[in-house]
Amino acid sequence: MTRSDSVGVGVIGAGYISSIYLENLCDRFDNVQVLGVADLVPDRARAQADRFSVRAMTVEELLEHPDIEIVVNLTVPAAHGHVGLQAIEAGKAIYNEKPLAVTQADAHRMLDLARQRGVRVGAAPDTFLGGGLQTARSLLDDGAIGTPVAATGAMLTPGHERWHPNPDFYYQPGGGPLFDMGPYYLTALLSLLGPVARVSGTASTSYGERTIGSGPRTGETITVDTPTHVVTSLEFASGPVGSLITSFDVHDTCGSSLILYGTTGSMRLPDPNTFDGPVELLRVGADTWEPVPLRFGQTENCRGLGVSDLAESLRAGSSHRASGDMAAHVVDIMHGTLDSAAHGRRVSIASTFDRPSPLVSQEIGH
Ligand SMILES: NC(=O)c1ccc[n+]([C@@H]2O[C@H](COP(=O)([O-])OP(=O)(O)OC[C@H]3O[C@@H](n4cnc5c(N)ncnc54)[C@H](O)[C@@H]3O)[C@@H](O)[C@H]2O)c1
Question: Is 258 among the domain residues?
Answer without folding.
Answer: yes
